[in-house]
Prior knowledge:
ten-stranded mixed β-sheet, Isopropylmalate Dehydrogenase
Amino acid sequence: MSQTITVIRGDGIGPEIMAATLHVLDTMKLGLEYEDADAGLVALDKCGELIPQATMDSISRNKVALKSPLTTPVGGGFSSINVELRKRFDLYANVRPAKSFPNTKSRFPSGVDLITVRENTEGAYSGEGQHVTEDGATATLIQKITRHGSERIVRYAFDLARRTGRKQVTIVHKANILKSTSGLFLKVAREVAAQYPEIDCNEMIVDACCMKLVMQPESFDIIVTTNLFGDIISDLCAGLIGGLGLTPGANIGTDVAIFEAVHGSAPDIAGKGIANPCALLLGAAQMLDHIGMPDKATALREAIVATLEARDNLTPDLGGTGTTRSFADAIASRV
Length: 335
């Protein structure tokens, strides 16, 4: 039985890494069909909109999308295309794994295997209520945390731990200072954690968490936190394993899920054929888990690791001389 997914090829290096990723998926003969949809600068050039209605309709219809990096132009319109997609489809859970890979520039070539689960729709990062006074002297921003938003993201994290056999969830907060917003998040998180007695739960203030991540990343399993803290922590975790070129992301809602490479569109190397496709390939592996193909997801991840171990056609950012396509070919040959 085939499944259709919406494919957003993106801007900059996006089309190159998407072509490489779809090549590997096609090699696996998964029965996937692709429906192309535009967003970002490509969509703006074609039809004057960053996210055309046809793209929204495609995502709504297929329920699953694989997305390359998009560029949000400076000026009017959305503050972020990604934030707008999360709002439109209520993609409340941002799931970012960080795992050590061989032959990277990481200071931790082994031992890191954690997941950041970030609330994706509220808090300071959502940009709600931004205002600058007429004299330009004062800027304000509303930071809103809800019981509903807190409960469902923490429950997602604990359900993920239960489903994947992970043993610990760390609740990250700043309730010692932000007693209302972060305080509510922590209060609700404790209530949810009590319903999962088999999973070890600990609490950590965000600054202490960042310090411990740098010093002892192996001590973390799953981190669950609010939107802005999760944005920062997940990039810190990417740095632990060698950078954003090895970091995928899933944006999960009740009805729709979008999987992506979390790095930017890298216009400085676009068209050169040297972009690393690993982040999007790992996002595709998350997608395969989501649509009920966990064995295929595991096979894809193992093929990426085997190719890194063999130093086979690695792209320049990984110390090799391969191209985007030759690196993908090497992965495809192992999958």
